[in-house]
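hi! just following up on the protien thing from before. the input was this:
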Amino acid sequence: MDPNSPNPARVAEIDALLPQTQCMRCGFDGCLPYAEALAAGTTALNRCPPGGSATIARLATLLGQPALPLDESCGQETSSLVAWIDPARCIGCARCLPPCPTDAIIGARRLLHTVLTENCTGCELCLADCPADCIVIRPRVESDGAAPSADENRRRYQSHGGRLAQHAHERAALLAERKRRAGKPFDQP
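and the predicted 3d structure came back as:
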């Protein structure tokens, strides 16, 4: 283990307090990298808008630091959010699928997409990739169901990452095979 790396148990304690929305508003590529930076002492504990003041207070207690107001450069504390796709404006481009950290958006190319609200963390990562501007982030209402728990968000995020890694591995193998075959004469298999 690198002597400069944070204690894995401490990272896990911090990560367990985060909402696991994977929104990147804190400036890190997800909740775990933020937890690692907190454990290493290289960032402030007030950078999580989805967790807001409650998460900041829990982090302050765990880390033995004073609670700070939410860093406004990261966004504002809000109630639970959820994405909604306007079916009249969705063009089925599928650009919203890859950035969704919990696979809460379903659909296929050239077909209408929809949000599984019970899986949506309200992270807003789908907004930037939508060329039709058909995605709206709104407060979660009763008909959306309860917001997913941090554990559910973490599990879906890990599943999403595993699926993307598997896809990348399969694509690399396919390209390597094509390259290998390209070097052979056409009459050989």
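The mean pLDDT is 93.
The radius of gyration is 20 Å.
cheers
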